[in-house]
Description:
Elements: H1 10-44, H2 50-67, H3 71-77, H4 82-86, H5 90-113, H6 120-138, H7 143-146, H8 149-180, H9 190-197, H10 204-240, H11 242-245, H12 253-272, H13 274-281, H14 302-312, H15 324-345, H16 352-365, H17 374-402, H18 410-429, H19 436-450, H20 457-491
Helix pairs in contact: 1-2, 1-5, 1-10, 1-17, 1-19, 2-10, 2-17, 3-10, 5-6, 5-10, 5-20, 6-20, 8-18, 8-19, 10-17, 10-18, 12-13, 12-14, 12-16, 14-15, 15-16, 18-19
Amino acid sequence: xxxxxxxxxxxxxxxxxxxxxxxxxxxxxxxxxxxxxxxxxxxxxxxxxxxxxxxxxxxxxxxxxxxxxxxxxxxxxxxxxxxxxxxxxxxxxxxxxxxxxxxxxxxxxxxxxxxxxxxxxxxxxxxxxxxxxxxxxxxxxxxxxxxxxxxxxxxxxxxxxxxxxxxxxxxxxxxxxxxxxxxxxxxxxxxxxxxxxxxxxxxxxxxxxxxxxxxxxxxxxxxxxxxxxxxxxxxxxxxxxxxxxxxxxxxxxxxxxxxxxxxxxxxxxxxxxxxxxxxxxxxxxxxxxxxxxxxxxxxxxxxxxxxxxxxxxxxxxxxxxxxxxxxxxxxxxxxxxxxxxxxxxxxxxxxxxxxxxxxxxxxxxxxxxxxxxxxxxxxxxxxxxxxxxxxxxxxxxxxxxxxxxxxxxxxxxxxxxxxxxxxxxxxxxxxxxxxxxxxxxxxxxxxxxxxxxxxxxxxxxxxxxxxxxxxxxxxxxxxxxxxxxxxxxxxx
Length: 492
């Protein structure tokens, strides 16, 4: 599996190992924040012993990463402009990855130290946006093209709406429980239950709901946040050793055939809609398979790109049979065709039925470029789990006691956890990254308001301040580090 290591120079190998360790460090710290939130309520309510809870959480995080696919991973990756993704040589790739990771790690460590449930998702996205904007300024590219703004807007909406939904749904769920069973012991805190019946453990059914919902949050967290680490490692691998990872070398002949067929169907699709798209795609004005010396993604080059892709994949049954540069070229063609199809799908003049067909074609086009080796999934899952087991105490205390003026009741824990599991699970269906931290902490805040327990202004202020500052600070840090690294590359 790792035969390619033998062919790497010592410097490239060291760079690769260091970059992967940086990603794992980010996911390890992510465990302090987000994964700890997944078990905060179940630990605070004494539904599970702490170390059993974090071990089970680590296992379900692993399952979530393993079974969650790579949709969220590549949603994060594609925040960067496609030109930066198709033309990253080793030096710039290293600068890009180390810049965004250094910024994300620095902010995550700082907020963890003060016990503030800050969002690793916000931090990572801000760092990626910062690198994209800095790259646009360095290369004198339009800022409008420096970031995949449509993807950024979709993610921003997800990150803003998910905490609001968590607050409202958790509050309504708690009110429903109070109306259904107003005098139930699930509406007391562990300390009050200890005083009343000598037990801190919740009643049996409440305990079951708390445990199941905690593991559900862990699972959906793994399938959402864990994928962000997967996306980062794939950026590292593609940037440093592109010939081995630009395409999934384990793709079967059938999968490669599907990719080739998707290109043919895309060609047919554009021909079928030539009246609408001829001007935008310069249809009928191509010059065979000739492409500019400096290849870039341009809708006007769509016909040439399809022709070049079909020529490259002619009689190819294994990607390993392609020359190293040909693999890089095939990935460039596929990413550009997908990028153009995304832009075309936004055109108002295209019928809705045709847009649906185009979305299906996009999935087939990217099937052999959007992947992750199993060892990457395993490494990310382990980093998340270990981080949870080491850093959970600070966040558990904040979630359990410092958001509301009173301790959390069993019903509040259930309401917040069930809401978080549903919200993150829904986001996974649409391949949108969300913040486990913000969804759960806002759910706890919603239950405190619904329970009339009151909120601790200081903690809520700190959480909101971190929520507001995370994006601009991480953007500024990443942009500054990337700019400095790029200057060093030019000087050397």
